[in-house]
Structure formats: structure tokens, C-alpha cells
Amino acid sequence: MLQRSIDDLLGMSADVDWAMCIRDASGRELARSNADRAMQTASIGKLLLLIEVARQCNSGELSGAALVERDPELLVADSGLWQHLHVDKLSIDDLCVLIASVSDNLATNVVLKEVGLPAVRALAESLGLVHTALHDYVRDSRGPADPTALSTGSASELSHVMSQLFRHALVSPAVSQQVNAWLTTGVDVSMVASAFGLDPLAHTPSHRNIVFHNKTGADPGVRADVGTVGRGTNAISYAVIANWDPSGPDRTDAVLERMRAVGTILKTTIGSG
After folding, report:
1. DSSP structure class, residue 244
2. I need a labelling partner for 168 at 20 to 30 A (CA). Which of 79, 162, 213, 254 fits?
3. Sign of the CA dihedral with 105 first, then 54, 168, and 126 last
4. What values do phi and psi take at 140, rounded to 5?
5. 248-272: per-residue pLDDT in tens?
6. pLDDT at position 205, please?
7. CATH code, residues 2-135+144-270
8. What is the pLDDT of residues 159-188, one digit of tens each?
9. Of 85, 130, 127, 120, which is closest to residue 106 (Cα–Cα)?
10. What is the rounded CA–CA span in Å between residue 237 and residue 173?
11. How large is the greatest C-alpha to C-alpha distance in the chain, in angstroms?
């Protein structure tokens, strides 16, 4: 029934490539569509950076309390708050909150410089990820010598990562708990999460009897939302990704409408609690 609902919903969408995977609390797949396809995922790749930071802090390779300085060479526009603040130094832990809550681009670049892109790639490999990767720093523009996308990922792999986080089975319980704590501060509930009527500024640790954490990504021609939503032990981990040609008609409104519809399906699936 769930698979049929997803198939009917995505079959209505023209000129948009969709990838989706939905899992239950145990990690078992409930529905999928193009789930193994590598898709552009915009800021979703920052999730891998957060996991690697949590791993390094837990192992003692990095201190979350360590202060790092704002680097003007790493400044980029668009999402984030640090570019608007006067403070020039923040702790690694505070920067991870900014990355998780508002997808802060400057914080991402500064933390990535501390951690190193090779370490994030090694983490992805250790997790068995084939299609999911953070390829580069955030840039205002991408030249011929730069990776074509900030990140890519498959719905199957990303929903599996979110399921493991929910079950505290990603890397270690301590690492999973730390990443979940950061993700629950996320304010972007404009996509799949829009169906749940959550307060975007105050759904930690739960709101409306719903436990929720997610990471989103948005670029021209890209909308992506990966997360876990549930009541009690009845939880759903999901990855919903849409790609379309940014040089053609703007599909944003239609994509967001269908992402909300997916959220409505998930809301029905987990019940009223």
C-alpha cells in the first residue's frame, strides 16, 4: 500500500528525476523509487562532515571545545548565520550546531578545513557508501577544475544512514547520539517535514508528540530531505531527492508540493500517537 502510494505520487511529476527510500524503525525498506541512483544532494553531504566530527571528538582526535577562527578565504554567501555575526572564533561543537541547524556554509568550510576532506571520504568508505559523498568545500561558483556538485547520494544509502542514527548504530552509540543532538536543531521543515506542522524553531526534543530530525539540501534544480520522524518506537527513516534541469522551467513549487505529500503519507504511516 505504501509503495503504491509513492508510485502514484511520483508518477504524476513530469520533468523531475525522483529518488526515494523509506524504512521502518528496524531499517527494513518499506518503499523505494530509483533508490540506488546517484543524485545531486546539495547540502546533504554536510551530514557526513557532522558524522566525522562526532567520530573524531569521540575518539579524542578532535576536541569539540576547541576554538577555531573565521577564515575570510572560506567565506561564502547564502545559507548560514556566522557570516552575519561579529564573533570571530567559535568552538567546533558550536559550529556543528550552526551546520545542522541552518546549514551554515562558512561554518562548514571552516570545520572541513580542520577535519580534512580525505577524512570525510574515508568515513564514507568505512560506512560502505558507494553513491553518497561530500565532494568539496562550499563555493559561490564552480569552475571547470572544481567538482560539479557539493555532494551526491542515493536514497537507499541516505535512508540507511538515518535509520542507523535513529537506532544509535552508526559508528557507535555515542557518535550517533551526538549527531542526532545536532540534527534536532535543524530549522528547515519546508520539504517532507512540512506535513507535520512542526514549529521550525522549537521541535527539540519533540513537538506534537513527534520525534524528528533531518538534514536538507537545496540548490538550483535540487531539493533533498533526509530524516527520521516517529512517535515512540514507531519511526520512519526517509530520503527524498528531486533533481531537475535548472535551465528549464522552475519546478520548485511542484517539487515542494510532492515532498509535502510524501510527508503526509509518512504522517499517516506513523499514526496519531
Report:
1. -
2. 79
3. positive
4. -70, -35
5. 999 999 999 999 999 999 998 887 5
6. 61
7. 3.40.710.10
8. 999 999 999 999 999 999 999 999 999 999
9. 85
10. 17
11. 52
Give the pLDDT score at 204: 65
Helix (H) or strand (E) holding 207: strand 206-207
Cα 235 from Cα 189, distance rounded (Å): 17
pLDDT, position 272: 54
Q: How far apart are CA 227 and CA 214, in angstroms?
A: 4
Q: In terms of DSSP bridges, do strands 67-69 and 89-91 run parallel, antiparallel, or are they unpaired?
A: antiparallel
**pTM for this model (two decimals):** 0.95
Other beta carbons within 10 angstroms of residue 249's beta carbon come to 10
Q: Looking at the chain, list the stretches that DSSP marks H as alpha helix, in order from N- to C-terminal side.
A: 2-10, 46-59, 92-102, 105-115, 117-126, 155-166, 173-183, 252-270
- Per-residue three-class SS string for 85-132: CCCCEEEHHHHHHHHHHHCCHHHHHHHHHHHCHHHHHHHHHHCCCCCC
pLDDT for position 11: 75
Q: What angle do CA 27, 178, 239 make, to 5 degrees?
A: 35
Asked if residues 251 and 6 have their Cβ atoms less than 8 Å apart, the reply is: no
Residues of the chain with pLDDT under 50: 273
Distance separating the N- and C-terminal Cα atoms of the chain = 21
User: 118 CB contacts (<8 Å, ≥6 apart)?
Assistant: none
What 3-state DSSP class applies to 58? helix
